[in-house]
Amino acid sequence: MVTKSLKTKVKKILTARVWLICFIVVAILMSSVIYKMSLGRVYPITANKQFVSINTGETYGGLIDKLAEQNKINFPFVLKLYRKLFIQSQLKAGVYEIHQGMTVKQVFDLMSDADNAQMNKIMVIDGTTSKQLIERLRKDPNVVKTVVNLPEAEMMKALAIPYQNLEGLLAPDTYFFMKGETDKKIILHLYHRQMDTLDHEWQNRAKGLPYKNKYEALIMASIVKRETSLDRELTQVSGVFARRLELGMRLQTDPTVIYGMGERYNGKITKQDLRTPTAYNTYTIAGLPPTPIALPDAKSINAVMHPDDSKNVYFVATGNGGHKFSENLTDHNQAVQDYLSVLRSKKDGATP
Predict the structure, then answer these.
(1) Which residues are CB-contacts of 250 (< 8 A; sequence separation ≥ 6)?
(2) Contact yes or no for 195/283 (Cβ under 8 A)
(3) pTM, two decimal places
(4) What gap in Å lies between CA 166 and CA 155, rounded to an integer?
(5) Phi, psi (rounded to 5 degrees) for 138
(6) How much is the average pLDDT of 12-37?
(7) Which among 266, 99, 298 has a CA at the least distance from the CA of 198?
(8) How far apart are CA 60 and CA 91, in angstroms?
(9) Residue 266 C-alpha from the chain's centroid
């Protein structure tokens, strides 16, 4: 005969099993919901397909945080756990084609293999040089090399570009090319983009500019770009240099000295560097250097074609961002002293 204590014990065991089953069922249901709202969620795109660009150095963690901020994913911790457990490789830079209906999991798996990248992203940064771009193309495994390894003169001949070199002639922007595209096609695309901009701006330029042709204006645009990173100062800087040319003053701009130094430049320029003649040293030569010194963007080209109408012929850094522009040497010298004072104050403030 079953005792009362045994019945109670059996009842407790059955109750515990029921609760365990209920817990497991709830856990499964919750896991299913979380999965569907995170890894199983359809990646949101606005068309049948969309290209997603991943930059070099971007991580899964950073991408997950960005997508969470944009409300494109839920439960980011689940995605980070999945990446840690199941995706051992790093996020691969490239441009990926995402189709409508793909889940977040499928997108992440896609991005773990660079072979899945449909297009090659090439960034041309304004103010950098054509030499830097050519070097990146040489190292890019997705670009077929047909001209970049040629000597410069042979490369220019193969490209049929009627200038001394590529400096200034390539339009800064972010481009997407198919994998396996040739360097020649890429360079020519950038060249024609820059020429279209230059032609348009030259045709609509202000009257009375001190440039014989559009190439001289492009040279100036490259100098303006290297002198200031602030869009609001572009027309002011171009105005100073235009007036200096009109008055027969030397441009005396440090970026041209740096460009002329080439590989000798180590991050600093000395008084001796300013006195050492090169084809680009505008402290020792009159007028413009023979070629651009960087790749100017459309804003810089526009600013050169439409300089400000002030009387400023000097400018110097303020030490706090931007420049101080002056009409005469007395005011300029005072601005220089103010700049040096700011530098001394910053140095004293940094001293323990």
Answers:
(1) 244, 282, 283, 285, 286
(2) no
(3) 0.73
(4) 10
(5) -60, -35
(6) 65
(7) 298
(8) 6
(9) 23
Tokens for 181, please give them: 């595209």
Strands 143-144 and 119-124: unpaired
Strand (E) or helix (H) holding 279: none
Give the pLDDT confidence of 316-350 residue by residue, as tens digits: 999 888 999 999 999 999 999 999 888 888 777 65
> How many CA atoms within 13 Å lie on the side-chain side of 109?
10
Q: Which of 245, 239, 180 is nearest to 210 (CA)?
A: 245
Q: Where are the domains of the chain?
A: 40-74+90-117, 123-200, 235-350
Q: Whole-angstrom Cα distance, residue 193 to residue 265?
A: 31
Predicted confidence (pLDDT) per residue in 190-243, tens digit: 999 999 999 999 999 999 999 999 999 999 999 999 999 999 999 999 999 999
Type of residue at 328? N
The radius of gyration computed from the CA coordinates of the chain, to the nearest angstrom, equals: 31
* Residue reference for tokens 């817990």: 23
Q: Return d(Cα 202, Cα 15) in angstroms, integer.
A: 87
Among 293, 303, 297, residue whose Cα is nearest residue 190: 297
CA angle centred on 62, ends 89 and 180, rounded to 5° = 55
8-46 as b/e: b if 16+ CB within 10 A: eeeeeeeeeeeeeeeeeeeeeeeeeeebeebbebebebe
Question: 3-class SS at 260?
Answer: helix
CA-to-CA separations, 134 to 122, 151, 182, 303, in angstroms, rounded: 11, 12, 12, 27
d(CA 109, CA 91): 10
How far apart are the C-alpha atoms of 92 and 142, rounded to whole Å?
A: 13
Query: Quick check: 168 and 295 in contact, CB under 8 A?
Result: yes
Q: What is the pLDDT of residue 39?
A: 67
